[in-house]
Every structure is written in structure tokens, then in C-alpha cells.
Amino acid sequence: MQLSIKAGGVGLTLTAASTVFFAELSWTPGDLNQAEDSAHRIGQVSSVNIYYLLANGMVDDIIWDVVQFKLDNLGQMLDGHENT
Q1: pLDDT band at 13 (very low <50, low <70, confident <90, very high)
Q2: Nearest one of 1, 30, 26 to 15, comparing CA atoms
Q3: What is the pLDDT of residues 32-62, one digit of tens each?
Q4: For residue 63, which of 1, 5, 2 has the smallest C-alpha distance?
Q5: What is the pTM of this model?
Q6: At what angle do helices 29-37 and 59-79 cross, to 10 degrees?
Q7: Would you list the domain boundaries of the chain?
């Protein structure tokens, strides 16, 4: 199943999905996490593979790096120590 990040993260429960493809990115890591979580909601009994379709040399490269940077910073703040 292929979803947009917003549709995958707002009230959509994918309890029968085994593979989910996202063909877009959001600048907000929380949007990505929420969309992924919708495939793992109550009632899902199987493993779910989630893939992000990214294009090299496009804005996807920039967005992915920014999202990873934000996730790293958030993890450091929540853990209370800086990665070296």
C-alpha cells in the first residue's frame, strides 16, 4: 500500500498491511513517526515493512538529512547527553 504521509498519519488504521511505501517526505519527524505507527496499530498481528521512496539529487536528499538531524537532536535532548 502506498500512502501520503498525512493520510497515513491521520486516523487511517492499516491492520491488514504487510508492506507500506511512502513516496513523499515531511519536514517534521513526528509526521513520519505517526504515519509509520498507523501500520502497527491495535489488531496488527504480522510484521510490517515500511519503505521510503527517495530520489537521488532531489529535495528528498535535503529533507531526509534535515529529518535525521532533528531526530538525532531530539534523541540527545531526551537522553540528556550529547553524541560524540
Answers
A1: low
A2: 1
A3: 888 888 777 767 778 888 898 888 898 988 9
A4: 5
A5: 0.69
A6: 90
A7: 2-79
